[in-house]
Protein 1
Amino acid sequence: MHEIDRRAVLAGLGALGAVALAPARGFAQGEPLLRKPIPGAAETLPAIGLGSWQTFNVGDDREALDRCAAVIARFFALGGTVIDSSPMYGSSQATIGHALARLGKQRTVFSADKVWTSPGSEGPAQIEQSRRYWQVPYFNLLQIHNLLSWEDHLRTLQRMKQERKVRYIGITTSHGRRHDEFEDVMRRHDLDFIQVSYNVLDREVEQRILPLAREKGMAVIINRPFRQGALIDDVKRHTLPPWAAEIGCANWAQFLLKFITSHPAVTCAIPATSRIDHLEENMGAMRGPQPDEATRRRMAAYVADL
Ligand SMILES: NC(=O)c1ccc[n+]([C@@H]2O[C@H](COP(=O)([O-])OP(=O)(O)OC[C@H]3O[C@@H](n4cnc5c(N)ncnc54)[C@H](OP(=O)(O)O)[C@@H]3O)[C@@H](O)[C@H]2O)c1
């Protein structure tokens, strides 16, 4: 595997110059995009990324691969960089690799992948296979998926980071799983990123995990922002509150995503989509005003009462 090259580091430093509100490439209005810092690093990330579970698991169907590549092309055009995948997601890694190669974006993407295998001794081979699927020189972020065999994988990832074969390392979980062990690993180990589920209805991580991430200086990626689609399907049957316009929400996707990305501990949310119109709604959440704490409470109460 190639070592991380100087270009990636310089790109990170360049992002520091652009700081929290960098102009969005691809928006005619030239409105700034919300970027958020990776704590302790000279780098910011766009607050909306792209998940890939199910949506990009399309096998080797040419037409479907091209449709996914079009979604990924639009994602980059609207200022996105963070794409999340896992060996657990069927052919999604290969789908992303196909799109990156076609678009020439292997060095633009902030590649966030995972290791998910047991025994832990299989980790290095799985990571190398994933890198080949993605067709990237290295991963920006490697996460231990759902803490599977985490002690072994953590040693592997720490060694890779030391050898400059990955830039950041972290752990993931999702809603419904116990957070005790997750919190314990966060307390005892030096991680750059965590990934958890969080949305306007599933707010358990507000109690301990998000404050702990801030305390420990860990970046936070949010999965299942739409409860795998069920939440947004539900709320879309209702009209937006009139005050949604005050926080720059033109649709429900932006309402749900701004609730997440405005949390001070959150670095980015990674909604998955197979549709360009949905992607455009989602990416729009990075524009315009973000809700303050009082408005966030109002948003949660509004959705809870629907
Ligand atoms: N433990 C872990 O590490 C873990 C666990 C869960 C998830 N994840 C990651 O997090 C990502 C996101 O979670 P998720 O995929 O479970 O669920 P999600 O992002 O909450 O929901 C995805 C669903 O929402 C729909 N959608 C997206 N944008 C929409 C819009 N604007 N309007 C209406 N529907 C919309 C998509 O359908 P369309 O295709 O029709 O748009 C898709 O079915 C995953 O893909 C994965 O990368 C990681």
Protein 2
Amino acid sequence: MKIVFMKTAVLILLIAMFLLSCSDNDSEVDGIPEELAQDVSEHINIILIIIDTLRADHLSCYGYHRLTSPTIDSLAAAGTIWVNAQAQAPWTLPAHASIWTGLTVRSHRTETNRNWIRSDSSGKNYALDENLLSIPVLLSEAGFSTCGIANVCLLGDIYGFDNGFNNYSCNSAGHGMAAVSVDSLIVWLEENSMERFFCMLHLYDVHDPYDPPSPYNALFDTENSGEATVWEVEDGLLLNPEDRDHLVGQYDGEIAWVDDNLRTLFAWLRSRNLNENTLIIVTSDHGEEFLDHGWVDHGHTLYQELVHIPLIIAGPGISEGFVDSSFVGQFDILPTMISWAGVDCNGQFEGVNILTDDLTGDRVIPASGVVPVPWSTGGHLASVASNSRKTIGMSDLETFITFDLNMDPGEEHSLPADSLGVEEVLYYWATPQRGYPVFAMPGQVEVNALRNLGYIND
Ligand SMILES: [Zn+2]
């Protein structure tokens, strides 16, 4: 009853915010000459917006106590918000690869090399496999004009994320570039939006250092309680835990700054009538840790502060003002997007179409991480969420803990490991969809997982 009440309250709040926003935004686009508004009746377009490092619970439409995201809230009110969306990885490279390919990390294998994965010992990250189907490749082949704007080196061409884009730019140090990136996207749209288009906009501003421009730096940190813009860690020790509230305030200011730039983009789309025939998706690759479980930054754990991500879709055919509590993943974006666009595809994906597929069963949403060595001594992590039950395999999958996310969304009280959850974690780990190279050269972790599943008998 309590949950139903909360969802109803959130829905009412979203609708109210949307109505307010509509009146504001209508006045913003006043003065746009009518002849600039395009006749886009035959165009069905897609804009995918990925806000790096954005944890869902810091958006006001996800119940945050600060009004960080009025524009994104308005989009949620105009479309559907998935309140239990899960990332497939806790850091940038593998999480984006799951968005691109519709696969889990164990299948696309775009992550940090550690010797147990492949035979070389270069210690480098693996690029996106060019043989995999991806959103830009599929939509490009389907006739979409494609544009990608990214703001971190991990999404550069050497990692293969430009494959399938007609136009792709990646600023390898793109922190603070939200306004410039939105302007660049609008310039591209001015020249190309008469064709059916797909745009990917990746914004890196919310990632540390947390130093939003004025006045966003004072929105939630009014006492200016500190000067730090990053966590200071030395030899594994956190030197400035007392800066937590200040850093959270600045992080929230970054969200507001990004949200305000999206307001500019959405107002421009409305001024050209493009909002009528454009699907808009807002999500993130992973969240951020603020000592929730003793860690800061991201990449180290699979707790919800890192894997609970926003997922909002609005546009033609999308239910308005709907709150969906199904457990879904970022690997669902590709199948959902191409199905919505009517693109025929014979590819095998682990994600599903969350707009039309039945999600009421015990669907398993996995996540995993290979902690980058420069950040720690490394280790293997894997988890599965199935409805509200979540099991995490810790420390090279030798220790398991379970949480009930409905009763304990902050994962403060671990339960004894759920045997079904443990089996699901090990099954995910041992049986990647593409099946290589783990079976050709299994390491000790895979051997243990296979043994536990009964595939190896000593
Ligand atoms: Zn990231």
